[in-house]
Amino acid sequence: MFTGDSSGNWLYEALHRYGFADRPVSVSRDDGLTLTGCYITAAVRCAPPDNKPAREELAQCRSFLERELALLHRVRVVLCLGRVAYESWLRAAGWWDSLTPAERPVFGHGGEAVLPDGRTLLCSFHPSRQNTNTGKLSRDMWYSVFARARELVDSAGKGEREKG
């Protein structure tokens, strides 16, 4: 996911910087990159026209995302990259329908909300060229959400070790 383009360059460099990846670059599925304490997925399974998935495409792919999420039992922190990912994750995880619109976390860069099940949802602008080349998303902004994700993952892991 995200390999071989500028979004991937931003993503893997940050994952490496904050200890979630063993190297700062990923160029292909079989390049040997190892992720630790994180999982990467997408709301759609194909590259949509103009990189903008239609609602129908998102709805058709949701079952794949739902099945993936069902397999991830120890997730404590979710970082959504962009509004599409945010809404798709909330829908696939069942929160979109179970929370009223007023109860749903608000999307915005650096947004953070603890969900009723205790998981923390973090939001970031997507690292698309449209956002990074225009300054809507700076490196400092990007790093801040990964630093926060690292803090949350570390504190969740500490809490599990203390229980266990």
Strand content: 5-15%
Q: Report helical residue fraction.
A: 40-55%
Tell me, rounded to a whole number, the average pLDDT. 92
**What is the string of SSEs from the N terminus onward?**
HHEHHEEHH
Main beta sheet: 3 strands, mixed
What is the top-level CATH class? Alpha Beta
Describe, in plain words, how this protein is organized in 3D.
There is one protein chain. By secondary structure, the chain is mainly alpha-helical. The chain has one domain (6-163): Uracil-DNA glycosylase-like domain (Uracil-DNA Glycosylase, subunit E, 3-Layer(aba) Sandwich). It contains six helices and three strands, in the order ααβααββαα. A three-stranded mixed sheet has the order 1-3-2. A hairpin with a 5-residue loop joins β2 and β3 (120-124). α2 (55-71) packs across α3. The longest helix has 25 residues, at 139-163. It is globular and about 40 Å long.
